[in-house]
Every structure is written in C-alpha cells, then in structure tokens.
Amino acid sequence: GDEVMLLQLNAALGASATGYLAYLGKLPSSGAFWSNLSSEPNAVRAAGIVAGCSAAILSLRALEEMIYGGDQFSGKGPIGRTVDMIETFLDQEKKRKVVVNDWINEYNALHKADDAEVRNTAYAKLVNAYYELATLFYEWGWGASFHFAYRMRGESFSEGIRRHEYYLSTFLGGLKPKSKVLDVGCGIGGPYRNIARFTGWDVTGITLNEYQVQRGNQLAAAEGLGSQCRSVQGDFLAIPFPDSSFDGVYAIEATCHAPERQKVYREIFRVLKPGQYFACYEWCLTDKYDKNNSKHQWIKKRIEEGDGLPDIAFTGEVSKALKDVGFEVMHERDMALDPNQAKPWYLPLCPSWNPFTQVNIFSMGPERGLRCRVQGSGDHGIGSGFSI
Prior knowledge:
The chain is of the alpha/beta class. 47% of the residues lie in helices and 14% in strands. Strands 4-3-2-5-6 form a five-stranded parallel sheet. A three-stranded antiparallel sheet has the order 7-9-10, with helices on one face. Helix 9 links the parallel strand 2 (180-184) and strand 3. Helix 5 packs across helix 7 (123-141), helix 8 crosses helix 9 (190-199) and helix 11 packs across helix 13. The chain is elongated, with a radius of gyration of 24 Å. The model is unreliable at 70-75 and 357-388 (pLDDT under 50).
C-alpha cells in the first residue's frame, strides 16, 4: 500500500545518500563524520541528514513492527497509525467532499446553545459532525474501541478495553457461536471485532457516520473477519432491520447520543427476538449531580462537548425509559465501586509530564451498571455503565 511505497522511497533516498557519501569517502557510520558535519559542504551535509533520517525511520519502523506487529487490538504502532491518519485526513475533503472548517463551526455552534433541546433536535447532525471530525484522532490516539474501561492489576490499557467488552458479552445469555448479534453505535467496529473473535458470533454494527462504516468494514476485512462481522450505516432511532432479527443486542457508550432514550430502546426492543438480551454501557448522571453546582455544570458541559452528546440523562431516567418500552431491569450496579480496580476509567485523561506513568490525581465520579429483563415476552438483559 501507500505505507510500503513510502518506506521504499525512504530506503531508496537513504541508499542514494549513503552511496554518494561512500563515493566521497565520508561514510556516515563514523563518529568523526557526524561531529564535523557542520563544517562540510552543503551537498555533504544534505546527504548526511538524508542518510541519518532514513536510517532512523527504518530502524524505528522495524522496532515498531517487532513490538506491535502481532497486536490485534491496534494492528499498528504509533508510526503506522500516524501515516494512516495523515493519508486519510488529506483525502477527507478531496474524496468525501467534507469541508472540515465548516463542520467544526457547525458543531461548535450547536454546543454554544444553552438549551439542550437545540442539540436534541439536531442530534443526527451533531453526532455525524463530531465523529466525522474526531474518528481519525480517536483511532490514532486511543485505538479502534471508542470507550473507557478501568484496569485491574497487571492489565495493560488494551487488555482492560478487551476485558470490558468480553465481560459485557457475557450478559447476552450464553449465545452460541454464529448467533446474530447487533452492536448499536459501533464506531469503527473495534468492540465487535474483539467480541466476534472471542465468541464466534456473527455481529453487525450500525453507525450514523459514513466514514466509520467504510473504516469498520475495511478493518474487518484486513483482520480476516469480513464474513463474520460488518458495519452498516443507519440511525439507531430507526434501525434498518425487521422485527426480531437478532439473538442479542449490545451498546457501548453509544445510546447516550440519542435525544430520547425511549426511542432508541424501543427500536432495540423491536429488533430483538423474544426472550433475548440487551447489554449496555452508558454515560449518565447519578443522583449526586447538583444542577445548581457550577463545578458540576462545568464538568457535564465539557463531557457533552468532548463526546458529542446532546444531553446527559440521569440513571433514573434511563431505567425508566427501559421499563417504558417493555424491558424489566434485572441487574444494575455502580461500576466505580467494582473491586480490584488498579486504575480508574478516567486515568488516561489525567494530565502528566511522564509518558510512562500517570498519577491518580482526581475523581470525576462514579460509574454504574445495569442488567434487565423484558416484561411480557420472555427474558431480555442489559448491562450498563453510568458515569458521573
């Protein structure tokens, strides 16, 4: 692909520069050459810089391949992800006719409105603009799974993310391999690829954003999962599948984008087969939130802006919405109180000058989880994480 071509070009330039220096008898492998480089003619200095940069890039890329080559979570290390991000970013306006500055201005305008109803009314535009602009940076800096997870002792960041996903899958009632499962608000499909490998399920993801659909299907094919999982474009307030299509449904920090929880939960209820389960992690406000507290208001607003949310609902509102559409709540809990947490979910957001460790310096509040059953048509389940 393009990355291979760039590496080949880099190697060719490095070889040419090194050959030129060898012809002059000034091999760049000696310490004397580098210490006296500033006094050399311009052509020699340029060749030395090209040769040195080329060697550094190739060495770093080789080291990256050794470290990250087998990492199924990210697929690539920092250099490979950076190259991918730059290539896609440069093509975004040209190929997809996305005027980035206009989208940024429109997104900011929606969040300047004090009334959340403005964002609720334009939620599709808000969410689509947010993920059109943010997806590239999410994948580059965070990975392919766009959600949080606390870490247990000995877990890396990616291990904690995968465990969080696998744990949620256990709430879908012990489905057999090849069961049909829906991921509501799938992003670029990191969770559904991990879950599909872990369970053997056939997973379909739905997302509002066109680029995320393209990227999710591209990554599924690249990881050999193209026949087992896929992304489709659609609005989860009008899920484009017939009634009773799926053996299970889950959502990970996604239905919080809906302006009305009843609408999205009603659609999920509709596409579930009778007697099956829905599991979910969710952004919510707990009863500790004080709408008259300016600090609480500031935190809530920053989360809404940072995550592209129309408004954040209270845990009680979410539970009521589930019951209103037919779900019976089976289990819920405050996940911030889970035992064996070595590092909390918000730690990656904490500022630190140390690139290797982060200090637990503040707490933004609790998370909560939920499991439910549907009234009147058998068992359904839900597992949710509520934050703040």
